[in-house]
Each structure stands twice: as C-alpha cells, then as structure tokens.
Amino acid sequence: MQRNQCLNVLITIIRRLFWNGLLIALVWCMGQQPVYAQEKSYVESTAIAAVDAVAPPQAAIEMVRLRSRVLPGVLIGGRYEGIFPTLKERYTATGQLDEEVEDAARSLIEDELVQAGLNVVRSPFNVLFDEQIPDNPEPGRFLLGGTITQTALRSYHSWWGDRTQDERTIRWEVFDREVGRVIYAHATQGTAQAEGVNNRSATYDAIRASVKALLADSGFITALASPLEASPVLPVDYKIAAIAGSPQPLTVEQLVGRSIPSVVQIRTPGGRGTGFLLDAAGLVITNQHVVDSAFTVKVDLYDGSTHTGRVLKRDRALDAALVKLEGNLATLTGLPICYSNSVKVGEAVVAIGNPMALANTVTQGVVSGFRTDSSRNLIQTDAAINPGNSGGPLLNRRGAVIGIVTEKMVSRGVEGLGFALPIGEALHRLDVKISAPLNGLVDPCGSPLTTLAATQLQQNALFQGER
C-alpha cells in the first residue's frame, strides 16, 4: 500500500516536471527571436480591401526585377533542432538574391499578375512559345519592381517533423514610362511555411503572399488605370522654318562638312542610335525603335555636349519619333528637307550615322528603288547601313534630307539592301509642318532658294519676259 502511494507521488512529480519543462521550453523558444534587418518603406501596410469593382487596366505592365536590400552579414534567422529547439546554425543575409531564386520569383509574380487579369508583358523564359516572340516585343507602359526590405527565415528539425518558415516584407514600386517617374510605392508582407529543412518553397510562397497583398491594394490598381498625361510641350501642329539647301550639287566632303554638325547620337538604357536636327530650337527626328518606349533620352551633339531629350511624339507603325532637346542650347542648325516627290532612282545619296558606336560615320550610294512594306513606303539604297545608323539622315547631293535610315535586310549572301522612311511622310505623321519661305521661291525639293539663286531666277524670268 505504501509502495503504491510512493509510486503515485513519483508519477505526479514526473508529470509536473514534464509539463513545467515543456512550458519553460515554449517560453524560451518564443524569446529566441533573431534580430531582423529592416529598411523603412514608403508605406507600411498590408491592405486587403477588395477591388473587384475596379476594371483591369489595358496598359501593359512588365516585371523588371526583385532585389534584396537587407545588408550583407545581418542575422535573418537560423536552423533549430531538438524537442527543445536549439539554435544550430545562424542565417545571415548575403545582400542579394540568388539568380535562380530571382528568376523563379519573377515567374511566379508574373503568374499572379496574369491571374489578376492584368495585361502582362511576360519574360521570354516564362512563355511557352518564346521562339515565336519578335526580337523587340512591345514593352509595357508600367514597370514593376520589388525590394525585399525585411527577411525572417527559420528551419526546424525535430521528432515532430521538419519545417521551414519564411517571412518577407517587399517594397513595391511602379514606374510609368509615359511620365518618366515612380507613380506608386507600397510595402506588403508575406508569410509562408513548408515541410522540410531549408525548403525554398517557403520563400516562394512568402513572395507570392506579398504579391497577393499588393494586388489587393486598391491604390495599385488605380495607379495602373491612370490616364496618360497630356504633353504641354508639343502643339497639335509643330511648325519649323524651311531651310535652304545648296543651289548646286556638292562634293561628298562639302556635303558632310555642312551636314554633320546637325547629326546627333541618341542613347537609351537599351542601346543607341542616330537622329538629326530639324531646326535651331532643338527639335530632333529619329526612329521609334531607337527611343523605344523611353520618356527621356540622352542626346550627344557634334560639339561634344550631352543634353536630355524628351520624346514628344512617336508613330510605332511608321517607326518615327520626335524628340525635343532640353536645357540651354548652343547655336544649332537643322538640315534642309526634300519633302516633295523629286527623289529619283539612281540619284546619289549619303548616309550619316553612328554604327557600332563609331560616331559620325559616312557612307554613300544611290537610290536603288522605292518599296512598300506593309503600310509603309520605303526608299531602298545601297549605302552601307549597320546597327546604330537607325534614325540618321539619308541626304541627296544638295545636302537635303530625303529619308530617315531605318533598317537593312540581313541574310547570308545579301548586301546593299538598306531602307529609309521618306522624310515627308514621317513629318506628316508626326504633325510637323514646314513654313513656306517668305519669297515663295523654292527648289525642286520644295526648299527655299538661297538669296543668290533666287536673284538669278528672278533675273532669268525678267529676261525671258522682255524677249
């Protein structure tokens, strides 16, 4: 009897020790919180308001990058083992995302955007028929980027099973290419758990949860539905003064000497090309594929100076764009325009551009013919054209622009097949008007005659009238 009582007391003591020990362990685990790296976000919020009433925007959105701003070496969590979790390994930030993780995260972010009904420009690697995508697909108006500002990563290994917990706070930003600035910034948090130690599925699911919180924010949808801002710079019709060409054919050396100061180099993050001045106020014309969908570009002038150029108008179907230089400008000179139908097959032409970053390269040839490509009229030439020539002038021997160099045909055994947009058609599509000369006297291209040529023409007309 006494032995049984002692046994019962011992069992009671063991039970109390077990539960007390378990309670102490739980309290200890709750107190073992790692120090997390955190960067202050624009907006600290995890809005979950429903936005079903807001119609999806039509403008395309493009996922650019997901990066980490957690400083290298900062403790972000660790690996724990045992019934009473004991820290076995500390996790510290590397300061950047693994390339494989970033690619996978971009893919799942695009999937979430598509499922939300947005018009998404998918990354080539995330498209089943990527070989069918054109080399230069239409870019998105909106660019989405994310910065991980806080990370909490812990793995557990014990008799109760293995698991990984991940928590990410991501600051999202939307850049509008049409207005050239960030129009939305918001921070959301995502938390997830997955079976197994160091399981990346927890990371992916945490990022996915952050994206879902972003899509639930009405401010995000409203930002994507914002209308285009009207440009206050360009009127409906932009007028430029007519510029006189040479009354007589020029040598190539003479033509280049008077034309090359008006040829510019245009640079964007995606590449570079050529353009040329239309007037002394800094109006530049080029190809649309040179400026792409950029709002501003860098323009290098012949004198070595660099200016910011604002893209005023663009015609994607024709592949033409209009750029206005900003800032204080030195004395500039535009090129004469041959905007009539006086261009003839066989006439000599000169192209000036910046192929392969070789500034102000000059090539010459002839007008080989006139072609039609889809809805465009093209001038064919055998003047050498290479990447970087796009947007440059194709000039006749009087120094007047007859076309905008736009493309060449590339294939094995194919040489001398370059094409230019007729300058008159490009100006018309961009609503650029050339003011008529005051004296009303023009050359065959429609450009004003020089004073000397006009005087000679008037004298000849007077002499013929007297006869």
Describe this structure in words.
The protein has helices at residues 2-31, 99-115, 200-215, 218-224, 252-259, 288-291, 423-429, 451-466, and strands at residues 61-68, 75-81, 86-92, 120-121, 142-158, 161-176, 181-195, 238-241, 263-268, 271-277, 283-286, 296-300, 306-315, 320-325, 348-353, 361-373, 376-381, 393-396, 401-408, 418-422, 432-435. The chain has eight helices and 21 strands. The relative contact order is 0.10. A hairpin with a 2-residue loop joins strand 9 and strand 10 (271-277).
Largest sheet: 7 strands, mixed
Taking the alpha carbons of the first and last residues, their distance comes to 154 Å
DSSP helical segment count: 8
Class per helix and strand makeup: alpha+beta
Low-confidence stretches: 27-57, 127-137, 230-235, 461-467
Rough shape?
elongated
CA-based gyration radius: 33 Å
List how many beta strands DSSP finds.
Answer: 21
Strand content: 25-35%
Helix fraction by DSSP (H/I, runs of at least 4): 10-25%
